[in-house]
Automatic annotation (TrEMBL):
Stretches of the chain forming a coiled coil according to its record: none
Keyword Cytoplasm: yes
InterPro entries: CofD, CofD-like_dom_sf, Gluconeogen_factor
Record's keyword terms, sorted: Cytoplasm
Family per similarity comment: Belongs to the gluconeogenesis factor family.
Gene Ontology molecular function terms on file: LPPG:FO 2-phospho-L-lactate transferase activity
Keyword Cytoplasm listed: yes
Protein name per the record: Putative gluconeogenesis factor
Species annotation: Aerococcus kribbianus
Gene: yvcK
Amino acid sequence: MISTQNKFDYRQPKVTVIGGGTGLPILLSGLKEAKCDVSAVVTVADDGGSSGSLRTSLNTIPPGDIRNCLVALSDAKQIYKDIFQYRFAPEDNEFSGHAIGNLIIAALAEMRGDVHHALKLLQVMMAIHGQVLPACPYPLVLQAHYADGSMIEGETRIVAEKRPIDCVSVRVANPDKRPDAQPTAGNNVVKAIMEADIVVLGPGSLYTSILPNVVIEEIRQALLDTPAKVVYICNIMTQLGETEHFTDADHLRVINEHLQAKAVDYALINKTTVPYEYIESKETPEYLVQVVHDKQGLLKEKTKIIGADFLNLKESGVYHDQRKLVAEILKIYRGDY
């Protein structure tokens, strides 16, 4: 008789991570190191910096977050990663601020006809361990709705507004060119969610990195239908203009409200106190205070809470420790909770 004691040992855990911003690549590199089969679903609503410029000029999806995720999952030599990440200096006129990788992604999308085929080629060129999937095959515009009934469009404007958001939605960019188009999931995105063992939301900015993906209807429905365990990584700090005064329960509540169901199975929440000097640091002015724990509020969300020390303190700010996150994700995968 064949033993079933180690029934999960025969293959790599399939982990699909959904988000954007700086937090996503950190987790991806940790999952890669742990030999997981990784799919990264990346937001396409960024409209700032190099990504925003290329998105406007070439009518393509913003490549910045995709570039960072490719590098995080790459087994290429470090020199190739460094070239891909190199950003032109401010004095370089029209190239100022552009990362070489952004230009390569945009050029390959034009050469191959779409971003899907461009990324298939890049996966070979960059020796990618896993796959990077745009949440939508074309650029989206993020819409923030406020309690007074007003609405602002564009991630950059929303962040600059710095006032509490009621909910978010997305629409297609350039509606004159796609008058009948609705935001749809990108190639293989729904498949990656449905075939995963674990689906992770975050880490990242709640309203500008995570929710722009969740509100795409096909992705929202896949998150409700997937047999995978859905895990949310709660922010450690509140963010100016997005989650001021938010508790950990508020973060989870907003996720579930946008999912239109209490669909998050597990939430990873930091339980260690952030040192005072990091909260007051001039390097992180967008941080306000540490997210407050709300036990009673969490109980209402019907989610299994996993509290641990997830802190990784750096001069540039407060981050999640990738190895500690990965360790807890693998425990969930093995059924230890």
